[in-house]
Amino acid sequence: MFGSPVLSYIDPGTGSMLFTVLLSVIGAGAYSARALFNKIRSGGMRKSAAKDRIPLVVFSDNKRYWNVFEPVCRELGKRGRKVVYITASQDDPVFSCGLGNVTAEYPGEGSKLFSRLNNLNASVVLSTTPGLDVYQWKRSPYVGCYVHIPHAASELVLYRMFGLDYYDAVMVSGEYQEKDLRELEKLRKQPPKEFCYVGIPYMDEMAARQAAAGPARDHERTVLLAPSWGKSAIFSVYGGRIIDELLKTGYHVIVRPHPQSFTSEKELIEKVMTEHPASERLEWNRDVDNFDVLRRSDILISDFSGVIFDFTLIYDKPVIYTDPRIDLAPYDAWWLGQRELWTHTALPRLGKRLDESNMKDIKAVIDECLSDPKYSEGRRQVKAETWVHPGEGAVRAADFIEAKIAQAEGKEGAK
Fold first, then answer.
1. Residue among 310, 287, 305 at smallest CA distance from 210
2. pLDDT per residue over 139-171, tens digit each?
């Protein structure tokens, strides 16, 4: 589910972007026409719609996002608020969560799922899924407000193009997120969205769990390699060479590939694993819960995975990052031109960049990141910029949702 002008040649990336823009313009016209039709059609149905309206629906397109919603659902339960939770995963943890205020629903795949979503009758819909009204998931004329909650501490303009255009409100954790989206609104001449600074509820949960667990037991220096997947990810760029260099350090090495790698690049992962079998120095990790592996690692090496911010901000440890040089053409960030992304300003403060020039000296890179106090100060700065109101995320998110439900119900009652 989810450059500069040229005279006679358009590179594939730009061509793809222009095609996306064209489709979006056409889609916007269709959306406007559909909205007008739905408004006319729904005029005679408002009374019955109001009667059957669900106050709050949560939509999750994958089971891995339960950690984003769980603390918010739990807080809403304390207030007596019922939640209808629609998931695209039949084995979503929500089905065994034990929260009495949550009614979980799996409508099925494909058209069954989107038929349910596109005809929702709800005051508020909360989701972490971008692309509302851009792809198959369409706005329902019977929903009062669509609210987006991010699933990572990073740019919201790194969603695929037009990712949040048709949401009414966005929960954010840092000023740079609102700044970027406000700039997009002006460039696209869109009506302003509502922003609410709630923080990061799932990180609050992780921080509380870490505090309760206390320091990790004594262990030898441990390096965690956690690559993402795709053509710009670590294994696609460096292959197993990076494991060879890490083993030369004498440190304990844990490799935790992205789960999608075992599906989308199965041959590559199998090749790397075969060439580098587990040993006393090398450990392959596929735990569903990453808490233990993050806790017992001293430093993380990754590329563009969101685990970078989870690791460094929760566990207060340095990172080493690669430069994947992502083509921004398909993403909202393309519209911002040459302006530097916040992530690109944050990473050098969290650790050092790894590339071909220092791969052979990776032990020295690791040792510097672990010993130089400037990275500790950098983590403090980055945390302040991207994680407002630490410890208050679920409460603030629930407050905002309750306010939007009351607002939607008030408007409906006034009609």
1. 310
2. 999 999 999 999 989 899 999 999 999 999 999
Q: Is the overall model pTM greater than 0.85, yes or no?
A: no
Beta strands in 19-154 (DSSP E): 54-60, 83-87, 102-105, 121-127, 142-148
Task: Calculate the alpha carbon distances from 334 to 13, 21, 176, 230, 246 in Å.
Answer: 11, 11, 16, 20, 35
In the numeric block, which tokens belong to residue 117? 């979503």
Q: What domains can be seen in the chain, in order of their start residue?
A: 12-200+391-414 (3.40.50), 206-386 (3.40.50.2000)
- Torsions phi, psi for 59 (to 5 deg): -115, 125
Distance CA 323, CA 357 (A): 12
Q: Phi and psi for 149 in degrees, rounded to 5?
A: -120, 125
d(CA 221, CA 281): 11
Distance of CA 224 to the CA centre of its chain: 21
